[in-house]
Design brief:
Strand content: 15-25%
Radius of gyration: 22 Å
Number of helices: 4
């Protein structure tokens, strides 16, 4: 029973890290990555469709994304969706592909992005701590019901704390990598 509670907590902590990584791929760092466009939805035949389901997206150069729609008729819709997004990019199409040039980040914009990613990291730390708290509450409830002993509770709490420390360290590592990516010129 204790292992189940701890395993559940670890699974949830792993998902929190994956979510943070995914959010970081959608944060523009002055470098072209196809993940930058993941949250863009295109109005396609009356339905909001993710851009990556309408086109092949590649990064042939560090500062350029090339979007090759499978249906050429969707090009105006894709361009419109990119212009409406909060990315601040201007698409240029040639009838069969759309090119996005990723501009160099200004110093102010870099500082803004660093603040944003630090906030996301702190939010993830809070999620990890909440998962630990939930797990410990479950364990305390089990101890009250006499399904586990006080010693087992103490050991399980120590294990939960070690898991928390491990995942918070992982968040710090992910944050450090993204911060380095944003601040390098």
């Amino acid at each position: 029973m204790i292992k189940g509670v701890l395993q559940d907590a670890e699974d949830r902590m792993t998902k929190a890290i994956e979510t943070l990584r995914k959010e970081y791929t959608m944060t523009r760092a002055g470098r072209a990555t196809p993940g930058l466009l993941d949250k863009i939805m295109v109005e396609y035949y009356g339905t909001a469709t993710p851009i990556n389901q309408l086109a092949n997206i590649s990064a042939p150069e560090p500062r350029m994304l090339v979007i090759q729609p499978w249906d050429k008729a969707s090009i105006p819709s894709i361009e419109k969706a990119i212009l409406k997004s909060d990315l601040g990019l201007n698409p240029s199409g040639d009838g069969s592909t759309i090119r996005l040039i990723i501009p160099q980040l200004t110093a102010d914009r870099r500082q803004e992005l660093v603040k944003t990613i630090k906030k996301k990291a702190e939010d993830s730390r809070i999620v990890i701590r909440n998962i630990r708290r939930d797990g410990i509450e479950q364990l305390k409830k089990m101890e009250k019901e006499h399904t586990i002993s006080e010693d087992e509770l103490k050991r399980a709490q120590e294990t939960a704390q070690k898991l928390t420390d491990k995942y918070i360290k992982e968040i710090d590592h992910v944050l450090e990598g993204k911060e380095k990516e944003i601040t390098e010129v």
